[in-house]
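re: ur msg from earlier - yeah i can do the FE2/S2 (inorganic) cluster complex, just paste it... oh wait u already did. ok heres what im feeding in:
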Amino acid sequence: MNYTITLKVNGRTVQRDVPAHLTLLEFIRSGLQLTGTKHGCGNGECGACTVIMDGKAVRACLILAVEANGCAVETIEGLVESPLAPFAGELPGAVTGTGHSHPEINGASPVGEGVGAGLHPIQRAFLAKGAVQCGFCTPGMIMAAKALYDRNPNPDRAAVVEALGGHLCRCTGYQPIIDAVLAVQTE
Amino acid sequence: MTYQTVGQSVARLDGIEKVTGEAVFVDDISLPGMLHARVLRSQRAHALITGLDVSEAMAQPGVVAVVTGRGLPRRIGACIQDMYPMAVDRVRYVGEPVAVVVAENPHQAHHALASIKVSYQDLAVVTDPWEASRPGAPQIHPDQAVYHRLPGIHPLPGSNIFHRLQVCRGNTADAFREAFLVVENRYWHPSIYHVQLEPHGAIATYHQKGGLTMYASSQAPYVVRHVICELLGLPPGRVRVIVPYVGGGFGGKSDHTIEPLLAWVARHVPGRPVKLVLTREEMACGTVIGRGALVHYRSAVSQDGMLLGVEAEVFLNGGGYGDFAVNIVTAAGISATGPYQVPNIKITAHGVYTNTPPTGACRGYGHPEVHWACERQMDIIAARLGMSPVEIRLKNALGPGKVNAIGQQMESHNGRVDLCIQQVVDALGGPECFLPRTNPCVGSIALEPGGIEADPLPHPTGANASPKAEPSGACAKPAAMPGKVRGKGIAALMKCPIMPTNAQSGAIIKLEEDGGVMVSVGAIEMGQGCHTVLAQIAAEALSLPLERVQVAPQVDTFHSPYEWQTVASHTTWAVGNAIRLAAAQLCDKITRAAAVILQVPAERLEVVGGRVQDRERPERYLTLQQLARGYTDARGTALSAPLIGEGNFVPQGLSHLDPETGQGNIAADWTFACQGAEVEVDTRTGEVTVLRLVSAMDVGKVINPVLAEGQIYGAAVQAMGAAICEGIVFDREGRIRNPSLTDYKVPGVEDMPELQALFVETPEESGPYGARGLGEHGAVCVPPAIANAIQQATGLEFFDLPVTAEKIIRAQQKRGVPA
Ligand code: FES
Ligand code: FES
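and the outut:
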């Protein structure tokens, strides 16, 4: 049994027919080919699939696509502030956009002025604080942090820990992630 | 020595892809015409398959093929060929693949699984490595004598022991006879999951012309290729393994896991790609698990605290198949004496088949298992002698001129565990925090309560009370709340990579037309930051600014140079060395080409800052850009060809261990470290809060401090899970009781201690710019450091992991302290 759903994804309206059992995560990843949102467990246990739905951080694997009908969904792909002018165009010379530099992490590096200029401050903070290793938890962590900042522009450590509660990261030991989220407001 | 790029915390090369969601992992890849596979797994831990009927499943909607083990040509394995990629006539653990459905979409494949009919004849089940090693245990591989295996593997025919390693030095009988004190205990480290956030996945296409292409979330594309070639009878040039970004490995994606299975499945649907991505539940039983070791440890000590002898027996759970665990047994055997010099040693490490999922590499690789024993033992010995746990460690520490368990003499460049210990002790508040426990035992023989005569094996009794230290002075920190007690503990470690004696690492550096370079390596970026560190090494070696260096992010066996596998914390060291060799060759080619063009002898030319210039007259130079595609003179005649440097590295002078004594040169380098913990224990609930984890590590030259710290933080928190909350629980039938992340708790953001990473930088002679490995080491000693801290806080001795609240409460009740 298929249903027609209409929703906003990263500001754009999409309309699709989806089977009743399809999760929002499957819809985003397979239906819309937005693969930045990750599937870590499918059971609501890891947070890798976190997206923002009508302003709240939700686990897309626990929501059916039909439940998102009429909602506004933000995914990691929607976060970059100037998505059409990513990085390479703004770079001097022949340096390509894989971005070695982040001033905070490497004050000395002259690499690619403007690299990552379109990034959201949370994304920049993650790079600056070494909060990314394998990167599989990262989109979910960043979306949870975004939802936090959207409702509380001055979170303290306890608020950050609460917002990231239940988000697993097996690489970083969390400390750099907490530091990154806290560092956003000082930007 | 000053460096331009080495030693800097440059940002990761892959950072922007990963914060934007652009980084591609296996499950993000879709290929045209792609099919989806789901696996029917055995629900029996040990049984003969008496019937398998897939006809009904074949008829389900969308199903393209149902593949079984029927017709599998041969067993596979890198060390012991003891497994088929899926069950043929017998299953040896719950979760072993029995049939695979291939369908147009994953839902159809999943639904068809229910229509497969399997009948079994059950056999007796054993999940404990010690029980499985006893005579009369159910035989899991009755025909193991005929399996093909590499030299240096010593099975015990007619038993479940697939490998036994002995390490012998001196004469332990005399040492134990003459000892002032003998301490004997039994320690248990349960099996654990790696919990990589990215589940294992692969996509394979069997080509109609013969040959196979596979995308895999793997640390070991060359091992995968080798095994698939053997299984399907294909030459290496026909099997292509491509590894995109990997979402965490921790050893659990090394060697081979689901890849040979998927290759066999793809063989049945030529021309169509098949994707298999495991569910989180399948991650518990469908790949490899880690650890699972019983260590029986006896120490002979002199009155002044010198270790005179160690006798240890290790029983490592190999699970249903032992191929992946062989070298873990070796690692555990050779490192069981920890970072100490012990003159008389007798260690026997056994790898034992059981009916659990196979044990594979897991961050630390044999070392955490034996350090759990060795480093608890050191604290207990110190207490018996009325010595400080710091002093006893410093007294016995390995260092320049001392000899390790396998007879290798330490040189000054090998690193300083004593400095690491001192740094951790200072960070935790100084030596006064580690006073000797009061009222030590002065008897000459003490069989500890965790000893062999206690409960039925394998599980030690858990805990027993002994005197606790009374911290004073600066350390006498009052606990935050009544009913809460605090303690501090340390543990030291030594870890070496265990690798084939000819483990290969290659690097290719191509000079690009803008004068920058593209570096290709076979090392996998799985989050550890190796591509960034390798780019820094290349930039340094070529005297180029870092933004001129790219590292090809995907490893592809068609193009990337050889790499044994990305394991053993050896990438910075081994691949870094390969890069330096490649850079040297490229510089040599550059200077020779420039010599012709500039009419200057090559010896007078140097490559610096993107130019090749005359040392004596630096105004005579060419840019690398001018040389990249071949230099042409005014008439358009080419005077040079495009330039590529290549470097290949194998460790120098390694040899197999002596089969009788375990002596030999198997370790290429060591990393020494010390870790410390401060904990708070709630005596009413038993709950342990880890307040601080401090690690000091002699990693040689730190190439990138932020990435190095990141490795240590991550490893320490992972190991904190093993210390206080993680452990796989098997029931009598061999079923896993806690396969989900709800039932198997790993540390979360709310459990975070304060983390600290300190570096001692004794330059490693054999490493690039003096660097040595550090990826796994932070996971080795956290459990004993935490348990030693819990001892200081509560007076309770624990011998089996994890030290849960429940065990603490039980131990307190046993001691008679009101809860
Ligand atoms: S994939 Fe949704 S919480 Fe893990
Ligand atoms: S960075 Fe790997 S799981 Fe968080």
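cool cool. The helical segments of chain A are 24-31, 121-128, 138-151, 157-163, 175-183. ping me if u need the other ligands too
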